[in-house]
Each structure stands twice: as C-alpha cells, then as structure tokens.
Amino acid sequence: MRYLIRRDKAENLNDLESEVSGLKEKLGAPAADLRCDIPVVLSEKRYFQLQFLTRKTGTGWVWVCPSIELVAEDEKGLVDLMAKFKLHKPEHLAHL
C-alpha cells in the first residue's frame, strides 16, 4: 500500500536530516529543475521515500521536500508508518 503525505513546510529540511545521514551531501548543490528521491528502508516490506525538488528563491535555488511517500505491506503497516510522522488515520482506515 502507498500513501502520499504533503508537508506543510516543504523548505524546512531540519527534521529530515535526522532520518537521512548526510542528507545535504546526497542531495548535492541545488540547481534549476532538479529532482531527487531518497528511500529510507525500515524493513523488507516498509519504507518511506523523501521526494525532493529544487525551487527558485531570490538568491538562487534551494532544495525542498513537498511530499513523502509511505509504502507498507498492508493497512496496519501503513498506519504504523503514519504514526512515525505523527499523522492521524484517514477516515477510510479508521477501523484499524
């Protein structure tokens, strides 16, 4: 199962640096029209993927992370991943 999270503060990468060691090195220098997906594997059947894009600012380009894709083996696994990011269960999964 897959679930996409939209991040409220896409430009703030501080919380993601604790999830991915050497995040800035993996992303490299921001430039026009770049994209980088970084998977974080938690187990054989569960992972999340950080989706980075570059955005133009007044002084140049910066990396932003507007979304995170959660991937799990079933609904329960998906809810467990949502708890990691302090998300509430969507209504269609409330029965779990």
Structural account:
The protein is of the alpha+beta class. The chain contains three helices and four strands. It has one domain. The mean pLDDT is 91.
Helix-strand blueprint:
Elements (H helix, E strand, L loop, with lengths): L1 E5 L7 H4 L5 H5 L7 E7 L5 E11 L2 E12 L3 H10 L12
Antiparallel strand pairs: 1-4, 2-3, 3-4
How helical, in percent, are the residues? Answer: 10-25%
Task: State the distance separating the first and last CA atoms.
Answer: 15 Å
Strand content: 35-45%
Radius of gyration: 15 Å
Number of domains: 1
Poorly predicted runs are none
- How many strands appear in the DSSP assignment? 4
Question: What is the count of DSSP helices, taking H or I runs of 4+ residues?
Answer: 3
Shape: elongated
Order of helical and strand elements: EHHEEEH
* Quaternary structure annotation: single chain
Mean pLDDT: 91
| Main sheet specs | 4 strands, antiparallel
- Counting helices, strands and paired strands, the structural category is alpha+beta
Strand order of the largest sheet: 1-4-3-2
Features:
four-stranded antiparallel β-sheet, 96 residues, elongated, alpha+beta
Short structural description:
With 96 residues, the protein is of the alpha+beta class.
